[in-house]
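pls ignore typos typing on phone
iron/sulfur cluster + seq
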Amino acid sequence: MNVLEIRGLGVDYQSATGAVHAVDDVSLDLRRGEILGLAGESGSGKSTLAHAVGRLLRPPAAITGGSVTFHRGDGTAVDVLALRNEELRAFRWREMAIVFQSAMNSLNPVATVGAQIDDVLRIHRPDLPRRSRTERAVDLLQRVGISADRRRSYPHELSGGMRQRAAIAIALALNPEIIIMDEPTTALDVVVQRDILYEIRALREEYGFAVVFITHDLSLLMEISDRIAIMYAGRVVETGGSRDLHRHPRHPYTAGLLRSFPRLRGPREELLGIPGTPPDLRDLPSGCAFHPRCGSAVAECSTRPPRLLDGVACLLNDEKGIR
Ligand code: SF4
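k done
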């Protein structure tokens, strides 16, 4: 059952030279309790998509079309793009929380982490007495691997990994149904990164929330995600179960991303990567935006844009296409 449905979502950035289509006609489902990985190179639109879903975009970015529907456990549906400011504030913490890449930027530098959890609880759960809020803050911190005494620490007194854990604890404060994690471990070393990933998975098992996990690191997503969506030039080009996508990538871009990471097991292989650079969103190539970099491209690829069919947007997989 889906907890979030994105349909035909578009986001433009207005620039002096015209509109930049950062997200173009994206449709995605997030199932209840799953971890959906969102991958792609810088500028592919993955963070813009997440910010649009959380209604966090600021001008010059603007949603140009589409819908985002949140399905509550009781069967009611919420039109996220139509929420008014007050409704949006409640929605963001109670039903959807967001963890950003740099916890230092999202945490308040002049408040202790305990006070920041307390703030969220005080505003959204005025029924909770102070003592219960304190207990909840301690419990949340311990669940993300931070000892109770660190409740009185300021963000600058914590390591990068601990700050990111604190940001996750704050996101969990009201038991949201969805947590969007925008490159939450990118700035951390690999050991801390792995620890946090395993904790996110364990917390998901315990609380049952769904996660949209955004990163450019596809190998990381393979480990943590149930399903993965690959974005290129503002569009979703492939979706699938993470194991299937790893073993049998169907889109040439996904295959290229997979060839860009070293394998931990098996014989040594030369890393091939993907030739060229991501396109300028102000001036996308005609047809399939990936065609100038695609080793499988044929003539039709430069004239006909592929549709996302059966989880793949490639003319080679399009039944009405060139195969
Ligand atoms: Fe490559 Fe053509 Fe498929 Fe685009 S449509 S990914 S250019 S084969």
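The mean pLDDT is 89. Residues 262 and 270 are 8 Å apart (CA to CA). more later
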